[in-house]
Amino acid sequence: MAARGGRGLVPLLAFLGVMAYSLSMAVVTPALPLLQRGLHTTPSGAAWALTAMTLSAAVATPVVGRLGDLYGPRRVLLVVLAVATAGMVVAAVAGSLPVMLAGRALGGIGGGVFPLAYTIIRDVFPPERTASAIGLMSSMLGLGGAVSWCLAGPIIDLLGWRWLLWVPVIGLLPGLPAAWWLVPASPPRAAARVDWWGAALFAAWLVAALTALTQGMDWGWTSPGVLGLLLLAAALACVWLRVESRVREPLVDLRLMRRRGVWTANAASLLSGYALMAGGLLFPLLVQLPERGGFGFGGTATEAALLQLPASAGMTAAGLSAGLLHRWIGSRAVLGAGAVLTGAGYAFVAVQSEAMWQLYAGGLARGVGLGLAYAAVANLVVLEVPAGETGVATGINTLVRTVGASLGTQVSAVIVAASVTAGQPTRPGFAAGFAVSSAVMAGVAVLALLAPRRPARRTGTRAEREPAQAVR
What we know:
Growth Hormone, Chain: A; globular; 19 helices; disordered N terminus; 0% strand; 3 domains; single chain; 77% helix; disordered C terminus; mainly alpha
């Protein structure tokens, strides 16, 4: 049955939900120094406002995707939007750090909008338009980050840092009635069950691993805390794999994850996430680095944010065009083209970074390339898995990208820190950071060659691909 308000508005709702979540994830970063003073905490305490949401989203995304597969995306989307909105309100009014972290952790559950949005798109769109919609959806994360940086300065200066936390709330509040009215219901699977033991073990090892990654710089990579968390994560992951291989309806179907189209797409997402956040650290840091000896630009935070705008616009445009390219040449070729373009952009700034126009040129190539790569990996996963597994498969893909993003930030920071001389990073450190990102995208190009060949255009009608929608 068509949604009451018309199917044409359903994708818009999904785009707005993903955009609002992306804003909520990125909006804290420019406000961290003010948040630290406002909540009377330490720099590491303030950083946990970002870490808490990242960890929560990483755990929630595949679990929510699985629940959407079992009970229908509409029902689960309503719950996710309600919980995420409530969490963001709590964070916005928090008077202490623990309350702020609790609100941010609840807000992280909003990460589940990604797999739910992919499932809704697959349900609602005809085959010839699915790839374009998925491409646009995949570009929202980068766009949300850029918008948050552009809004940060004026809002903080005119209204104060707390108002910055209300921005995603304003974006999400209309989502609840809109989702209730627009998103069509779908029947739950017969005798559907949730693998709660698998979900608990998955959350445990993932939180341990991501905490080690995000705190490695502060605690020290060889510290007992980091090493202990990594060992704990490895042990829990082994137990989780054993449980998932034995239950009838696992949280993650490991056989599905071993399909060539899925594992190549997930590996490409890991490396692409690295490339996205490596640039998110290196470009602003280089722009704001005090000029010394012909290196560094001494720019402001606003100038660093403006540098991200062309890349974000290119990422969005590439996501839109990826659907058309998918029909012409297939997502395998789109992934390869995105990897080559991103790698070329990073290689260029690795050797040419003396002028701002060079950073703009390299950043634009990075943005367009990553827009193509993100859209391609999402399409490869959706094409490979059965309709009933779309949510969990795309949730795992989003999770893997989050892990890659954490690695990109941490590894790039280590590379730059190793080059510090007289208290300031030097040109070789940035060149090495950009060069590593270029090499990472070369790995994505290899994965594109390993991805399975398939016809560029999917065949069959939507009715043949999907179960009939339930009548509300």
